Amino acid sequence: MQRIPCPERDDWRETAAQCGFDFYELDGERYWDERAYYAFSIAEIELGIEEPTGEIEQMCLELVGRVVADEALLRRLKIPQAFWPLLSESWKRRDDSLYGRLDLSFPGFRGGDRVPAKLLEYNADTPTSIFEAAVFQWTWLEQATERRIVPGRADQYNSIHERLIARWRSLGKGRRLHLAGMTAEAEDAATLAYLADTAAQAGLLTSILDVTDIGWRDKGGGFVDLDDNDIALAFKLYPWEWMFHDAFGARLGSAATQWVEPPWKAILSNKGILPLLWQMNEGHPNLLPAYFEDDPKAAGLGSSFVRKPIYSREGANVSLVSDGVAVSAQEGPYGAEGFIRQALAPLPDFGGVFPVIGSWLVDHQPCGLSIREDATPITGNRSRFLPHAIL
Protein backbone atom coordinates (compact mmCIF):
# COMPACT_ATOMS: atom_id res chain seq x y z
CA MET A 1 0.00 0.00 0.00
CA GLN A 2 1.44 3.30 -1.11
CA ARG A 3 0.27 6.90 -1.31
CA ILE A 4 1.44 8.19 -4.68
CA PRO A 5 1.30 11.92 -5.51
CA CYS A 6 0.06 12.57 -9.04
CA PRO A 7 -1.22 15.41 -11.24
CA GLU A 8 -4.93 16.03 -11.17
CA ARG A 9 -7.02 16.10 -14.33
CA ASP A 10 -7.38 19.64 -15.67
CA ASP A 11 -11.09 19.12 -16.28
CA TRP A 12 -12.07 17.06 -13.25
CA ARG A 13 -14.46 19.71 -11.93
CA GLU A 14 -16.30 19.80 -15.25
CA THR A 15 -16.40 15.98 -15.24
CA ALA A 16 -17.81 16.04 -11.71
CA ALA A 17 -20.51 18.50 -12.76
CA GLN A 18 -21.48 16.29 -15.71
CA CYS A 19 -21.81 13.32 -13.35
CA GLY A 20 -23.94 15.26 -10.85
CA PHE A 21 -21.13 15.21 -8.28
CA ASP A 22 -21.73 18.71 -6.92
CA PHE A 23 -20.37 18.26 -3.39
CA TYR A 24 -16.73 17.76 -4.36
CA GLU A 25 -16.01 20.71 -2.07
CA LEU A 26 -17.46 21.11 1.42
CA ASP A 27 -17.39 24.51 3.11
CA GLY A 28 -14.74 25.66 0.66
CA GLU A 29 -12.44 22.70 1.36
CA ARG A 30 -11.65 19.82 -0.96
CA TYR A 31 -13.67 16.69 -0.37
CA TRP A 32 -12.64 14.88 -3.56
CA ASP A 33 -8.84 15.01 -3.85
CA GLU A 34 -6.99 13.40 -6.77
CA ARG A 35 -3.61 15.02 -6.18
CA ALA A 36 -2.60 11.59 -4.91
CA TYR A 37 -3.95 8.06 -5.03
CA TYR A 38 -3.49 4.94 -2.95
CA ALA A 39 -1.93 1.96 -4.70
CA PHE A 40 -2.36 -1.66 -3.66
CA SER A 41 -1.03 -5.03 -4.71
CA ILE A 42 -3.56 -7.69 -5.70
CA ALA A 43 -2.57 -9.70 -2.58
CA GLU A 44 -3.37 -6.72 -0.36
CA ILE A 45 -6.81 -6.43 -1.95
CA GLU A 46 -7.71 -10.12 -1.95
CA LEU A 47 -6.09 -11.29 1.29
CA GLY A 48 -5.84 -8.06 3.25
CA ILE A 49 -9.25 -6.48 2.57
CA GLU A 50 -11.70 -8.66 0.62
CA GLU A 51 -11.25 -11.90 2.55
CA PRO A 52 -11.42 -10.31 6.04
CA THR A 53 -14.45 -8.25 5.00
CA GLY A 54 -16.40 -11.39 4.12
CA GLU A 55 -15.38 -13.04 7.38
CA ILE A 56 -16.36 -10.02 9.48
CA GLU A 57 -19.73 -9.86 7.71
CA GLN A 58 -20.46 -13.47 8.65
CA MET A 59 -19.55 -12.75 12.29
CA CYS A 60 -21.90 -9.76 12.23
CA LEU A 61 -24.80 -11.80 10.86
CA GLU A 62 -24.23 -14.42 13.53
CA LEU A 63 -24.28 -11.64 16.12
CA VAL A 64 -27.66 -10.35 14.88
CA GLY A 65 -29.15 -13.80 15.40
CA ARG A 66 -27.93 -13.82 18.99
CA VAL A 67 -29.04 -10.28 19.81
CA VAL A 68 -32.63 -10.58 18.56
CA ALA A 69 -33.07 -13.65 20.79
CA ASP A 70 -31.59 -12.04 23.92
CA GLU A 71 -33.45 -9.25 25.73
CA ALA A 72 -30.40 -8.45 27.81
CA LEU A 73 -28.38 -7.72 24.67
CA LEU A 74 -31.16 -5.63 23.11
CA ARG A 75 -31.29 -3.64 26.32
CA ARG A 76 -27.50 -3.35 26.33
CA LEU A 77 -27.62 -1.78 22.87
CA LYS A 78 -30.21 0.76 24.09
CA ILE A 79 -32.76 -0.31 21.48
CA PRO A 80 -36.23 0.79 22.68
CA GLN A 81 -38.21 -2.20 23.92
CA ALA A 82 -41.26 -1.27 21.84
CA PHE A 83 -39.27 -2.10 18.70
CA TRP A 84 -37.81 -5.45 19.76
CA PRO A 85 -40.58 -7.39 17.95
CA LEU A 86 -39.99 -5.34 14.78
CA LEU A 87 -36.31 -6.33 14.74
CA SER A 88 -36.98 -9.94 15.63
CA GLU A 89 -39.64 -10.42 12.95
CA SER A 90 -37.48 -8.70 10.36
CA TRP A 91 -34.61 -11.08 11.14
CA LYS A 92 -36.85 -14.16 11.10
CA ARG A 93 -38.05 -13.18 7.62
CA ARG A 94 -34.43 -12.52 6.64
CA ASP A 95 -35.49 -9.16 5.22
CA ASP A 96 -33.17 -8.21 2.39
CA SER A 97 -30.23 -5.87 2.82
CA LEU A 98 -28.79 -3.71 0.04
CA TYR A 99 -25.34 -2.60 1.15
CA GLY A 100 -22.97 -1.63 3.94
CA ARG A 101 -19.43 -0.41 4.57
CA LEU A 102 -16.84 -1.64 7.02
CA ASP A 103 -14.29 0.94 8.13
CA LEU A 104 -10.89 -0.68 8.53
CA SER A 105 -7.43 0.26 9.69
CA PHE A 106 -5.08 -1.36 7.18
CA PRO A 107 -1.34 -0.65 6.99
CA GLY A 108 -0.74 -2.73 3.88
CA PHE A 109 1.69 -5.60 3.48
CA ARG A 110 5.40 -5.00 3.96
CA GLY A 111 7.40 -7.78 2.35
CA GLY A 112 6.48 -10.97 4.15
CA ASP A 113 4.86 -9.07 7.03
CA ARG A 114 1.09 -9.27 6.61
CA VAL A 115 -0.39 -7.09 9.34
CA PRO A 116 -4.14 -7.82 9.44
CA ALA A 117 -6.79 -5.19 8.83
CA LYS A 118 -8.69 -4.19 11.96
CA LEU A 119 -12.40 -3.41 12.13
CA LEU A 120 -12.99 0.12 13.42
CA GLU A 121 -16.76 0.19 12.91
CA TYR A 122 -19.58 -0.92 10.62
CA ASN A 123 -21.63 1.62 8.68
CA ALA A 124 -24.47 -0.85 8.23
CA ASP A 125 -27.57 1.32 7.97
CA THR A 126 -26.97 4.61 6.13
CA PRO A 127 -23.50 4.57 4.54
CA THR A 128 -22.76 7.48 2.23
CA SER A 129 -19.85 8.09 -0.21
CA ILE A 130 -21.26 5.28 -2.37
CA PHE A 131 -21.40 7.41 -5.54
CA GLU A 132 -17.78 8.51 -5.19
CA ALA A 133 -16.71 4.93 -4.55
CA ALA A 134 -18.75 3.24 -7.27
CA VAL A 135 -18.64 5.81 -10.08
CA PHE A 136 -16.37 8.81 -9.74
CA GLN A 137 -13.20 7.03 -8.69
CA TRP A 138 -13.76 4.54 -11.54
CA THR A 139 -14.10 7.45 -13.97
CA TRP A 140 -10.85 8.80 -12.54
CA LEU A 141 -9.09 5.48 -13.17
CA GLU A 142 -10.27 5.28 -16.78
CA GLN A 143 -9.19 8.84 -17.55
CA ALA A 144 -6.01 8.64 -15.49
CA THR A 145 -5.02 5.56 -17.47
CA GLU A 146 -5.75 7.25 -20.79
CA ARG A 147 -3.72 10.30 -19.74
CA ARG A 148 -0.87 8.20 -18.33
CA ILE A 149 -1.33 9.53 -14.82
CA VAL A 150 -1.30 5.91 -13.64
CA PRO A 151 0.34 2.90 -15.31
CA GLY A 152 -1.55 1.46 -18.26
CA ARG A 153 -2.22 -1.89 -16.60
CA ALA A 154 -3.69 -0.36 -13.43
CA ASP A 155 -6.99 -1.78 -12.20
CA GLN A 156 -9.38 -1.03 -9.34
CA TYR A 157 -11.18 -3.11 -6.75
CA ASN A 158 -14.64 -1.94 -7.69
CA SER A 159 -17.71 -3.85 -8.85
CA ILE A 160 -20.05 -1.83 -6.62
CA HIS A 161 -22.13 -0.34 -9.43
CA GLU A 162 -22.86 -3.64 -11.17
CA ARG A 163 -23.61 -5.35 -7.85
CA LEU A 164 -26.12 -2.64 -6.88
CA ILE A 165 -28.03 -3.04 -10.14
CA ALA A 166 -28.15 -6.81 -9.71
CA ARG A 167 -29.30 -6.47 -6.11
CA TRP A 168 -32.12 -4.08 -7.02
CA ARG A 169 -33.38 -6.60 -9.58
CA SER A 170 -33.85 -9.19 -6.85
CA LEU A 171 -35.27 -6.69 -4.35
CA GLY A 172 -37.72 -4.91 -6.67
CA LYS A 173 -40.10 -7.70 -7.63
CA GLY A 174 -42.10 -5.36 -9.86
CA ARG A 175 -42.75 -2.75 -7.16
CA ARG A 176 -42.12 0.98 -7.26
CA LEU A 177 -39.17 2.00 -5.13
CA HIS A 178 -39.44 5.10 -2.94
CA LEU A 179 -36.13 6.58 -1.78
CA ALA A 180 -36.38 8.87 1.23
CA GLY A 181 -33.88 10.98 3.12
CA MET A 182 -32.96 14.54 4.03
CA THR A 183 -33.06 15.91 0.51
CA ALA A 184 -31.86 19.39 1.55
CA GLU A 185 -28.45 17.87 2.35
CA ALA A 186 -26.34 17.83 -0.83
CA GLU A 187 -24.53 14.56 -0.09
CA ASP A 188 -27.72 12.78 0.94
CA ALA A 189 -29.59 14.06 -2.12
CA ALA A 190 -26.78 12.89 -4.41
CA THR A 191 -26.68 9.47 -2.74
CA LEU A 192 -30.44 9.06 -3.18
CA ALA A 193 -30.21 10.14 -6.83
CA TYR A 194 -27.41 7.68 -7.53
CA LEU A 195 -29.17 4.75 -5.88
CA ALA A 196 -32.37 5.67 -7.73
CA ASP A 197 -30.39 5.54 -10.98
CA THR A 198 -29.01 2.08 -10.20
CA ALA A 199 -32.53 0.90 -9.36
CA ALA A 200 -33.87 2.37 -12.61
CA GLN A 201 -31.15 0.50 -14.51
CA ALA A 202 -32.48 -2.64 -12.81
CA GLY A 203 -35.93 -1.91 -14.24
CA LEU A 204 -37.61 -0.38 -11.17
CA LEU A 205 -39.83 2.69 -11.19
CA THR A 206 -38.48 5.14 -8.61
CA SER A 207 -39.58 8.18 -6.64
CA ILE A 208 -37.42 10.35 -4.37
CA LEU A 209 -39.01 12.20 -1.47
CA ASP A 210 -37.94 13.91 1.70
CA VAL A 211 -38.39 11.76 4.77
CA THR A 212 -40.66 14.45 6.26
CA ASP A 213 -43.04 13.97 3.30
CA ILE A 214 -43.83 10.37 4.16
CA GLY A 215 -47.48 10.27 5.17
CA TRP A 216 -49.86 7.80 6.78
CA ARG A 217 -53.24 6.61 5.55
CA ASP A 218 -55.51 5.80 8.46
CA LYS A 219 -58.03 3.91 6.35
CA GLY A 220 -56.39 0.59 5.64
CA GLY A 221 -53.21 1.75 7.38
CA GLY A 222 -49.92 2.26 5.63
CA PHE A 223 -47.25 4.76 4.63
CA VAL A 224 -47.94 6.88 1.54
CA ASP A 225 -46.16 9.48 -0.59
CA LEU A 226 -47.37 13.00 -1.40
CA ASP A 227 -49.63 11.61 -4.15
CA ASP A 228 -51.23 9.18 -1.71
CA ASN A 229 -49.51 6.22 -3.37
CA ASP A 230 -48.69 3.28 -1.12
CA ILE A 231 -45.04 2.93 -0.19
CA ALA A 232 -44.47 -0.79 -0.60
CA LEU A 233 -40.68 -0.76 -0.95
CA ALA A 234 -38.65 2.06 0.59
CA PHE A 235 -34.95 2.79 0.73
CA LYS A 236 -34.27 5.18 3.60
CA LEU A 237 -31.12 7.20 4.04
CA TYR A 238 -32.23 7.93 7.57
CA PRO A 239 -31.03 6.07 10.68
CA TRP A 240 -33.21 3.53 12.44
CA GLU A 241 -32.48 5.05 15.84
CA TRP A 242 -33.94 8.34 14.59
CA MET A 243 -36.98 6.58 13.15
CA PHE A 244 -37.64 4.92 16.51
CA HIS A 245 -37.96 8.33 18.15
CA ASP A 246 -39.82 10.16 15.35
CA ALA A 247 -43.58 10.63 15.45
CA PHE A 248 -44.24 7.95 12.82
CA GLY A 249 -42.03 5.44 14.65
CA ALA A 250 -45.02 3.97 16.42
CA ARG A 251 -46.51 3.07 13.01
CA LEU A 252 -43.52 0.99 11.86
CA GLY A 253 -44.77 -2.29 13.28
CA SER A 254 -48.20 -2.06 11.68
CA ALA A 255 -47.15 -0.97 8.17
CA ALA A 256 -46.62 -3.34 5.25
CA THR A 257 -43.69 -1.31 3.88
CA GLN A 258 -40.49 -3.25 3.23
CA TRP A 259 -37.60 -1.09 4.39
CA VAL A 260 -34.12 -1.06 2.94
CA GLU A 261 -32.04 -1.22 5.05
CA PRO A 262 -34.24 -3.61 7.08
CA PRO A 263 -35.05 -3.14 10.79
CA TRP A 264 -32.52 -5.76 11.91
CA LYS A 265 -29.76 -3.49 10.60
CA ALA A 266 -30.47 -1.28 13.64
CA ILE A 267 -28.33 -3.77 15.55
CA LEU A 268 -25.31 -3.59 13.26
CA SER A 269 -25.36 0.21 13.02
CA ASN A 270 -24.83 0.35 16.79
CA LYS A 271 -21.24 0.66 18.04
CA GLY A 272 -22.19 -1.63 20.88
CA ILE A 273 -21.61 -4.48 18.42
CA LEU A 274 -17.85 -3.89 18.75
CA PRO A 275 -17.60 -5.24 22.31
CA LEU A 276 -20.15 -7.96 21.50
CA LEU A 277 -18.14 -9.10 18.49
CA TRP A 278 -15.01 -9.22 20.64
CA GLN A 279 -16.84 -11.18 23.33
CA MET A 280 -18.00 -13.72 20.74
CA ASN A 281 -14.70 -13.93 18.85
CA GLU A 282 -12.03 -12.87 21.32
CA GLY A 283 -8.59 -12.87 19.76
CA HIS A 284 -9.78 -12.77 16.15
CA PRO A 285 -7.02 -11.08 14.11
CA ASN A 286 -9.39 -8.63 12.41
CA LEU A 287 -11.08 -7.44 15.62
CA LEU A 288 -9.89 -5.02 18.27
CA PRO A 289 -10.45 -5.58 22.00
CA ALA A 290 -13.53 -3.54 22.92
CA TYR A 291 -15.77 -3.22 25.98
CA PHE A 292 -18.75 -1.25 27.18
CA GLU A 293 -17.44 1.60 29.28
CA ASP A 294 -19.15 0.35 32.45
CA ASP A 295 -17.63 -3.14 32.04
CA PRO A 296 -14.81 -3.67 34.58
CA LYS A 297 -12.84 -5.37 31.78
CA ALA A 298 -12.55 -2.00 30.05
CA ALA A 299 -9.83 -1.13 32.55
CA GLY A 300 -7.71 -3.77 30.83
CA LEU A 301 -7.24 -1.40 27.89
CA GLY A 302 -5.19 0.82 30.16
CA SER A 303 -5.00 4.59 29.69
CA SER A 304 -4.87 4.56 25.87
CA PHE A 305 -7.97 3.71 23.84
CA VAL A 306 -10.67 5.12 21.57
CA ARG A 307 -13.90 6.19 23.25
CA LYS A 308 -17.00 5.98 21.04
CA PRO A 309 -20.68 6.68 21.72
CA ILE A 310 -23.04 3.76 21.16
CA TYR A 311 -24.80 5.99 18.63
CA SER A 312 -22.65 8.36 16.57
CA ARG A 313 -22.10 9.45 12.98
CA GLU A 314 -19.20 10.90 11.00
CA GLY A 315 -16.82 10.64 13.97
CA ALA A 316 -18.93 12.88 16.23
CA ASN A 317 -18.16 12.62 19.96
CA VAL A 318 -15.36 10.13 19.29
CA SER A 319 -12.18 10.76 21.26
CA LEU A 320 -8.73 9.22 21.02
CA VAL A 321 -7.26 8.90 24.50
CA SER A 322 -3.51 8.48 24.96
CA ASP A 323 -2.05 8.06 28.46
CA GLY A 324 -5.33 9.26 29.91
CA VAL A 325 -5.48 12.45 27.83
CA ALA A 326 -7.84 13.04 24.91
CA VAL A 327 -5.36 13.97 22.18
CA SER A 328 -7.94 14.11 19.39
CA ALA A 329 -11.67 14.54 19.76
CA GLN A 330 -14.68 15.48 17.64
CA GLU A 331 -17.57 17.44 19.09
CA GLY A 332 -21.16 16.42 18.50
CA PRO A 333 -24.60 15.71 19.98
CA TYR A 334 -24.14 12.02 20.85
CA GLY A 335 -23.35 10.05 23.98
CA ALA A 336 -26.55 10.04 26.05
CA GLU A 337 -26.95 6.26 25.58
CA GLY A 338 -23.43 5.50 26.79
CA PHE A 339 -19.99 4.75 25.38
CA ILE A 340 -17.73 1.88 24.44
CA ARG A 341 -13.96 1.72 24.62
CA GLN A 342 -11.94 0.15 21.84
CA ALA A 343 -8.24 -0.62 21.70
CA LEU A 344 -6.14 1.74 19.62
CA ALA A 345 -5.34 0.63 16.09
CA PRO A 346 -3.06 3.39 14.83
CA LEU A 347 -3.86 4.36 11.27
CA PRO A 348 -0.93 4.34 8.84
CA ASP A 349 0.75 7.74 8.72
CA PHE A 350 1.60 8.97 5.22
CA GLY A 351 3.43 12.19 6.00
CA GLY A 352 0.81 13.55 8.37
CA VAL A 353 -2.32 12.15 6.72
CA PHE A 354 -4.15 9.11 8.04
CA PRO A 355 -6.24 6.94 5.68
CA VAL A 356 -9.22 4.76 6.63
CA ILE A 357 -10.26 1.97 4.29
CA GLY A 358 -13.97 1.73 3.54
CA SER A 359 -14.69 -1.84 2.45
CA TRP A 360 -18.04 -2.08 0.66
CA LEU A 361 -20.49 -4.96 0.63
CA VAL A 362 -23.53 -5.37 -1.61
CA ASP A 363 -25.87 -8.25 -0.79
CA HIS A 364 -23.36 -9.24 1.92
CA GLN A 365 -20.59 -9.72 -0.68
CA PRO A 366 -17.36 -7.65 -0.57
CA CYS A 367 -17.06 -5.71 -3.82
CA GLY A 368 -15.02 -2.51 -3.56
CA LEU A 369 -13.22 0.03 -1.45
CA SER A 370 -13.03 3.72 -0.77
CA ILE A 371 -10.42 5.73 1.09
CA ARG A 372 -10.94 8.74 3.34
CA GLU A 373 -7.97 10.57 4.80
CA ASP A 374 -7.53 13.35 7.32
CA ALA A 375 -4.83 15.25 9.13
CA THR A 376 -6.14 13.71 12.36
CA PRO A 377 -6.62 10.03 13.21
CA ILE A 378 -10.40 10.53 13.51
CA THR A 379 -12.24 10.39 10.20
CA GLY A 380 -15.06 12.94 10.08
CA ASN A 381 -17.59 14.41 7.68
CA ARG A 382 -14.99 16.69 6.07
CA SER A 383 -12.30 14.04 5.56
CA ARG A 384 -11.02 13.90 1.98
CA PHE A 385 -11.88 11.12 -0.47
CA LEU A 386 -8.95 9.83 -2.55
CA PRO A 387 -9.12 7.27 -5.39
CA HIS A 388 -7.20 4.00 -5.47
CA ALA A 389 -5.63 1.66 -7.99
CA ILE A 390 -4.26 -1.86 -8.09
CA LEU A 391 -0.75 -1.86 -9.54
UniProtKB/TrEMBL annotation:
Keyword annotations: ATP-binding, Ligase, Magnesium, Metal-binding, Nucleotide-binding
Pfam entry (one): GSP_synth
Entries under InterPro entries matching the protein: GSPS_pre-ATP-grasp-like_dom, PreATP-grasp_dom_sf
Gene3D superfamilies, A to Z: 3.30.1490.330
Keyword Nucleotide-binding listed: yes
Domain Glutathionylspermidine synthase pre-ATP-grasp-like: 12-390
Keyword DNA repair listed: no
Domain of life: Bacteria
Name of the molecule in the record: Glutathionylspermidine synthase family protein
